[in-house]
Structures are given as structure tokens and as C-alpha cells.
Amino acid sequence: MLPSPRDEAALGVARNVRALVTGKGQPAPASAKPLGGAAVPKRKNRPTSASPSWRPAAGIPGRWLRVVRTPDEPLEHVDREVADPSEAAAVRAGWLLIDAHERLSIRGAEQVFGHELDAWHRYTDDSLVILDHPGNAESVKVHESKNNLLRYRRTMDFARRGERVFDVGFGMGYLAAQLIRERGVASYHGIDIERENAVRAEALFASNGLSNADITLEHGNLFDLTREQVASTGATLVICCEVLEHVDDAELALRILADALPDGVDLVFSVPLHGRLESVWGHVSVFDVARLKEMLDATGLHAHHVEPLANVWSLVVASRSAEPSRRVREASGRPPLRSSVALTEHREFINVEAGDMTPDHASKPGDVTVAGVGPRRVSCRLAGNGGVSFPVQGLEALRLLIHFTDIVNVRRFVVRATADGTKVCTWVWKPTAEQIARPDRRFSLRPGEGARPFVSGPHADLDRADRVEVVAELAPGTTAEFSLTAAYLP
Q1: pTM of the entire predicted model
Q2: DSSP class of residue 300?
Q3: Within 307-410, where are the H helices?
Q4: CATH pick for 350-489 out of 3.10.150.10, 3.40.1110.10, 2.60.120.430, 3.40.50.300
Q5: pLDDT by residue (tens digit) across 274-317?
């Protein structure tokens, strides 16, 4: 039994987000912000997902987190939710996934969710037959891109065999052909504001043996749509994908769509994720989670399923009823092929023995005295800049326990990881009196992540790290003393 889309929508945020900042297998950008069906025959022109395309190339600069507005507003609004608690929880999780995608840059979201996206592309490869396309090479390239094919596949997943579809904005007819030929819908009625699209769509239908299918195409405007028009076609599902971002008043457009829904008819629509497809000049506005929720509220629609689609679009299944959605419950989805990836090669921390901690002289020999005060704890007395260093076997995470005996003269603590004497990562902390008020502080450091009060610097090649230095920089002519316990994840 395949997992339902609402179950799959709830997966992924917590289990994936660490991959953004570990830099495992490749250096992260220097400017990275800390947290960023049955098989069918394939045709030769079919895009494949054998080689994951979401992994960013090493050394390419760019920020993982988008700069977003974060107003300090009280939580006053109550979400409009469906009656079934499980469905409501899945929708809530879907909104959170969309929000996570939108707060990440495009590349950041690819890094975090890329392995799950690869699984969805594999599902598309295995279950969607490429149509014979009479269009020009550029048109074929656009319609048969990996992301567009996944968009068609997911939209098809919510259409049931034998039902009657009304589509607002049929475009080149690619979705119509897939719905009729591969999903088995009984009829398709589409409207589009571009008259020439009907000619292109009919050519596509002819190339795929659908000239006699129950397909009706009309020139029409979304803003003129009525319930009587939709009802006259016997529609059981209304689709409006990649349209709302093109119109001057998306709120009004969705309200018209909602008013045009006959009783018991669902609406499936999609819009670009916030921060996606902004180079398309025909797109006149952007959509974030807050706007989509407000639009649904204003139309009286209830969201039964929401998901980020292909790191490009937000997909919504909605209706005027708050009752559980049979459509969502019975929708197809990718097989439960496990997409989870190990985020680390090692799972146990290695304790650093006191005998392995040696003086690290940042100024001159003799300024640092290190003495063991336990099997894994050393005392470090400083008469100048310096501290402790110890060997590691690669570095994914570092855990420190520092006892502040006398550090009022310390200007800053610096933790460095090196490989063959070359720095591969740095963390810096400038202590204040308030921060050192208590004698013991525990720190958990990860490359690329801030660990208050430490700030992480650029990092690369942490797998090669062979030594860690914990150094205090003092005011001239002063002394300091602290003790240290350390452990690390290789």
C-alpha cells in the first residue's frame, strides 16, 4: 500500500536540516549563514534521475538562507482547518514544509530536501510515459524538464479514473493528454486566454492518438468563469495550475474559482513557491504561506492537502467542505522507497584523554602550563596567549566543557581545527562579564554553525582535520586560568 500524500508531506524537516550545515563531502560556501505504479517503458528522450542534480558544486559562493522579513507580531490568527484532526495535522505539516523551502535559498532547499526530491523524480521516471510532442525543440525542453514532469505527475495523482476534469489554463495541453491517456479521466474541458494554445494542444492530442478523446478546448477568461459553466460540463474536479501568478488580482481570481465550484467538487491549484521563478516576466506577484492562507480564508475554501512541489511550486488541494477529503485519502503517491540518508559516518563521540592534551603556544614557549586534574580534564595556566591542542580523526562536531577559574583578562577564545597545519575551521568567542558569571559552560560546536556565544567562520575539508586548538588571547601582560574537557565526533 502506497503512503498517502498527506503522510509524505509531514516528513523531512528535522531529519534533513543538519545536512545543510555539516559540509559533509564538500566545502560549504564561505558566505554560508549558520542555521541553510508499475514501471513503464522508457523512451530515449526521457530525463532520468540517476545522477542527483541537486548537490551544489564545491566552491560556488552563495547564501543558504534567504533574507526574509521577520516582523515581531503576536500570534492572533487561528488557521482555518478541516474537521479531521489527522488531515488537519498533515496540512499543518505541509504548510511548514512550504515555509521551510521559502526561507531557504533555492540551493539551500536543494541541499536540505534534495534526496527526497530525487525520490520523487524517480517516481516520475518510473510511472509517467513521455508524450510524443510535435512542438519545437525549445517547447519540448520546457514541457519535459524534470520539474515539469513531476508537476504533471503530482497533479495527476489527485485525479481519479473516470472523473470529469475542468481545467483553467490548459496551456499546450500536456496535462490534458496525460490525464486522458495515463490517468484515465472520462472527459476533459479546458479554457485558456491564449487562442493559439488550442491549436498547439490539438496537435499534441493528434500526435498521441487522442483526436477522438472526450476533450473540449475553449477560449475563455478565468474572471468570466461561473458555476453554471463548470456544472454544465459535469466536472468533478477543477484544476488551475500556474495561472494565479499571471493575473493582476490573484485574490479575486481564487474567489471566482471557489464560487464556480459546484457542490462536492474539489479544486487543485498551484503557484510558484516564494522566491522561485521570479525571472519569468509574465509572473506579476509572489505567494508565501501567509498570503495563501489569507486567500483561502477569504474564499471560504478549506485546504485538504498542501505540499512544496519540486522546490518550485506550492500545490494545494481545497474544497468548500471541512469534511475529510476522499480525494486526498485515495490519491497516489510515490512508493515508500527510503530516501533517508545517513548524515554522519560516525555515531559515537570520542572522549579526549588528558594525556593527549598538550600546550598550544600562541605567543612564546613557557607561557602555557597544562596539568591533568583527572583522566579527561586538564588545567591550563596562561602567562600570555595560548591554550590546549589535541589530535582528532576528522571532525564533524566538537563538545567542550570549560571551567572558568580566572579568565577576566581573556579578550577572546578561539577554537581552530587544522589539517596538516592548515586551518580548516574556526570558532571565535569574545566573552563578557555576564557570560562568564557561572563557573562552568558547555559548548557544542559544528562547522558552519553558530553555537552561542561562539561564532563559526568559513570551513572546508573537515574530514581531513587532524588537530583542534582551544586558545585564549589575553590582554598584554596579564594571566588567566581555565580547565578543559573535550570530546568530538569524527
Answers
A1: 0.79
A2: T
A3: 326-330
A4: 2.60.120.430
A5: 999 999 999 999 999 999 999 999 999 999 999 999 999 999 99
